[in-house]
Amino acid sequence: MLRRFIGAATILMIAALTCAGQTPNQPELVSPFGVKFYSQPDEKNQIVDAEKKLAADPKNIELIIALGRAQATVWRFQDAIATFTRGIEIDPSNAMLYRHRGHRFISTRQFDKAVADMEHAAKLNDKNFDIWYHLALAHYLKGRFDKAAAAYEKAYAVSEKDDSRIAATDWLYMSYRRAGLKDKAAEALARITPNMKVEENKSYFDRLMLYKGLKAESEIMNDKLTDLELATVGYGIANWHLYNGDKAKAKEFFQKITSGKYWPAFGFIAAETELARMR
Predict the structure, then answer these.
(1) What are the residue boundaries of the structural domains of the chain, listed by start?
(2) SS3 sequence, 100-113?
(3) Of 159, 101, 82, which Cα lies nearest the Cα of 127?
(4) Backbone angles phi, psi at 180, to 5 degrees
(5) What is the DSSP string of 1-47?
(6) Which helix (DSSP H) or strand (DSSP E) does residue 150 occupy?
(7) How far, in Å, CA of 157 to CA of 169, rounded?
(8) Given pLDDT bands bounded at 50, 70 and 90, which one contains residue 7?
(9) What is the DSSP letter of 191?
(10) pLDDT at position 253, please?
(11) What is the pTM of this model?
């Protein structure tokens, strides 16, 4: 009797999770090294709330984007891609739908699709920082450092806040260094000053201060970093060692980053691609 009750309860639980788009033991993706990555529980019911609002106005693009972003918040990126695709079917000329879907193609390591979406988004809106920034990142992750640099320059040109300029410059500097353009990298780095207003991108700013010689590695890398901070700070330091000739040290950092838990972080994804190239 107890076994029958447990079996029924399990079936009900699976049914409930499936209805919510959370199939048990179903990974969001499998890394190039065979590691399975999973979504997180929606403890704040953000998805349910967004679904309710969208159900009342199913063709509202803003509500579709809100649902996709809620899904992405808990790392349900496959669902988010499907949601943004649904929006594109309704409004194929909406640049932000391609921008958001392209971002989630990056999260799921589908870099060619990300490039295609971001390039299309840029044709629809060439003044949006996030479109250029994520297009550049997709090129960077493909190892197209010259194209990444060109897109990061455009991201910098349309940025309106120091935080955005800091983020764009950090990746721009790395793109130029990886492309072997040290003079261009130095020019980009010269735009960054210690008195810039940093609100969100402290990890990127710390990396830039390292590149400028104003901070030591030991000042920005420590055991108290969160997995996200480790991925962000660590990737910059790893890259620094890589193009300064210490491949072994760089690989050590890449491995440390990818042993963390924050698998959607750009630094994590980049470290993963570096290790794949070294393999």
Answers:
(1) 216-279
(2) HHHHHHHHCCCHHH
(3) 159
(4) 80, 20
(5) -HHHHHHHHHHHHHHHHHHTT--TT--SEE-TTS-EE-----TT-HH
(6) helix 145-158
(7) 11
(8) very low
(9) T
(10) 95
(11) 0.89
